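My hope is that you will study the protein record below before we discuss the fold together.
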Amino acid sequence: MIKLLLLIIPILLVSNSCLKCHPKKMDQCKQSNHFTLKNSINITRQTWGIKDSNTTLQTLPQSKNSITKPADLVDDFLRRKCLKCHLNSKTINKTNNLCLSCHNNHKNKLDSYKAKPTQDKCLKCHNNEFIGTDYKGLFPHDFDKAYRSPITKDGYYPNRPYGIDFHHLSSDIHYQKGMSCIDCHKNSKMGKWEDKVNCTSCHSNLSKQNHKNYHNNLSCSSCHSSWNISSYELNVLRDDTPNYKQWKRLQVQEDRYLEKFLKKALKSKKTIEPKMPDYLTNKLKNGIWYSGYKFRRWENFFLVNDEFGKIKIAKPMFQYRISYKDKNGTMILDDQNKIDNNKIEAFLPKVPHTITKKAKSCQMCHNNKIMLDKNLINKNILKGKVLKGTPLSLQQLNKLQSKKYKQERAKNLY
């Protein structure tokens, strides 16, 4: 009892001391997307077939027992595969204090408050697929054992930050200059974490010579990002049977629990029941979620219009092939990739955090086969809808191959 009190009292003191000076911050925090996770939750639920979803982390339903379609599985997928990071998560916050989820150092010590969250604190959650570690030049490997980083001189695999194997590519120029996440992602009001400066907030004297008026609708990152993460066709399987041998080469799936579970299950002489935690309740539930991408690339990209009419690079974030095997070994869902005869596929306009001073070459857009070649095989995986934006119109696509481009290109060459 004494040990328990010694553990609880400092947490209560920290919580009370925060609120004494910052009484409104807790209410603001509870309105933020970091607390509700409403964006990622609702986009995923809608992509899996739930229309007009308006759910937060705090109202996310328990998973259904009867599974007949992807929409019946999506909440279980979110709870046990996606939502590892939230402000009450034990993996990022061992104190149960919302303030200290971000405003202390990486080690979750009670006596190390930070007015501005450190970059390491941000990347503890923002480290995979969305925006985050690309800022440091880190691109995640494919999952198969063949893609693991080469062993070091001492015979071991190198350390894996955040449990992920990374390729080391060029980092963002702002990172190279010593800037941190919070330098651009301002937090004047905690209820609006998404508020941020844009490029012209600092770069006000952009050269008109290098930014022709016919490029006015292009976002800066469309030309000035050196690479972007594109991961295609996320295959997800919930398997309620103890079928582990087939995953021997795929133990590293950017999921620490699954990696430890598979390592133990593959070595054990006894059959271990397939169980995985619900990251909102921290209780184990039946079934294991496995995942793997068709392929991951950084060299190809295509463009879309965002909701404000700016042309941005599109990120293939929600391409799913969904399977479910029940405890009897029956495939209830077998590689399902369509709902109402439409592919489970969606793209979002994104701003890669891989900015470089030198822009892309003209050909990377104007001769971009992934957008312009109608017979290209990759067209088969680019048929989804654009969320928070629209595809390039036929007129815009024609401009990419216009005489004006060829004339401007000729001026540069001769």
